[in-house]
């Protein structure tokens, strides 16, 4: 509660400063940060847009605005902004990851996989990158590639319940019921309230 009150005071002072100097870089950047933290995403985007109008080569601002668009499910805008950021700094695995997820939401699976390939190459121990690429392969019907990616995800994070769950789904789709049950055993051990895992496991038992 105290932190919230201090943020309100900080925003008040930043508003006063920006009334006098509407293009003040540090003030715009900080107000955007506070607005984003407070859930005022449209206002944060507005601040970053002013900032980018004055500093079009600011990779951090492009990345932040793209990330906000991603958080608010404005997928096309997220792709545009993250692409601008990556043109300026192509060594950012999280930006490839976010752009890949946005492209997946826009039903561009091949482009999504290309982005996730790049993210994996830059940060191969990140389980979410493998998991998300597995989801893209699963969406394209490439079960073997999806299984391989989910295995990499759980290799780097043995408690990644979503990767274990989807790994089981892919194995089940191939008729590998005992292995699917093993994956859902791991899922349930990590996340015992994931009821669809019980349902899927029961369906696999019936097939044995």
Q: What features would you describe in this structure?
A:
The protein is mainly α. It is 80% helix and 0% strand. The longest helix is centred in the first third of the chain and has 19 residues, at 2-20. It is elongated and about 75 Å long. The mean pLDDT is 94.
What is the strand and helix layout of this fold?
Elements: H1 2-20, H2 25-37, H3 41-54, H4 59-71, H5 75-88, H6 93-105, H7 109-122, H8 127-139, H9 143-156, H10 161-173, H11 177-190, H12 195-207
Helix pairs in contact: 1-2, 2-3, 3-4, 4-5, 5-6, 6-7, 7-8, 8-9, 9-10, 10-11, 11-12
Which range does the strand content fall in?
A: under 5%
Provide the succession of SSEs: HHHHHHHHHHHH
Q: Report the strand count.
A: 0
Give the overall silhouette: elongated
User: So how many helices?
Assistant: 12
Summary tags:
single chain; 208 residues; mainly alpha; 12 helices
Précis, in short:
With 208 residues, the protein is mainly alpha-helical.
